[in-house]
Amino acid sequence: MTKLICIGLAALLCSFNVQATVSLNGTRLIFDGRFPEASLEVVNRSDHEVLIQAWLSDPTNIDGSLESAAVELPFVLSPHLARLDAHGKQTLRVLYQGQGMPLTQESLLHLYVLEIPRRTAGSNALNIAIRQRINVFYRPAGLGDDPAATAHRLRWTLASTSLRVNNPTPYHTALQDVRLGEAVASDYLMLAPGASHEMPVPVAAGARSLSFRALNDYGGADVYCAAGNSNGFDNTEHRQKDC
Q1: Sorted alphabetically, which Gene3D superfamilies does this protein's record hold (predicted)?
Q2: Nearest-angstrom CA–CA distance, 198 and 175
Q3: Which among 2, 137, 215, 226 has the fewest CB atoms less than 10 Å away?
Q4: Cβ neighbours of residue 17 under 8 Å, at least 6 residues apart?
């Protein structure tokens, strides 16, 4: 009897496939401080209307819930609540109030979009609200440098059992699949401006080659490779394919 219950429960879970019907037209949003606002398009891909709720949150807000987003940010998100018709679209506008954010470095925010499906009268169907999150990078005007060159300017230091990376730029950088030779040092890490991160590496990794992928402003992953010396890695090169 217990076995039958477990089999039935497993079948129920396997057939229960939850997918977002609302899509965002980007995996990240760059807010260029030279302009008063940035925008993101939300699209309802379903045959039914949906309600969306959107909010901004400080990245220190771990759970990202609207209730716990207590830190007051100098931004206005409009609209924060909207109804999308079937296959309809809605533009979310993020407006900066003009002061309150650092002027010497880029800042990271989180933008949440909660999809609330319409309840069907008399239906016993389970309605599930789906939440999506993307990173918003507020980039004040006049920072200088080229944000596209951030990954190239990272400083890498190799010790006997650790790999250290420092970001000396005023921009964030997100790295994927950091490798020493064939050994994976990190699957993913986000480096804030001026931040450093140390990764343990296997002793056997003693390879003198470094490779990683850096996410660009469009959400794509660019490949970088470097040969090592006695202290670390210099002359990181952008490649069109894997190292």
Answers
A1: Immunoglobulins
A2: 13
A3: 2
A4: none
Using the predicted structure, report yes or no on whether residue 6 has a pLDDT greater than 50: no
Domains delineated in the chain:
19-139 (2.60.40.10), 147-239 (2.60.40.10)
Contact 147, 32 (CB under 8 A): no
The predicted pLDDT at position 183 comes to 87
Q: HEC profile for the chain?
A: CHHHHHHHHHHHHHHCCCCCCEEECCCEEEEECCCCEEEEEEEECCCCCEEEEEEEECCCCCCCCCCCCCCCCCEEEECCEEEECCCCEEEEEEEECCCCCCCCCCEEEEEEEEEEECCCCCCCCCCCCEEEEEEEEEECCCCCCCHHHHHHHCEEEECCCEEEEECCCCCCEEEEEEEECCEEEEEEEEECCCCEEEEECCHHHCCCEEEEEEECCCCCEEEEEEEECCCEEEEEEEECCCC
CB atoms within 10 A of CB 115: 21
- CA 26 vs CA 17, 87, 217: distances in Å: 23, 18, 10
* Residue type present at position 51: L
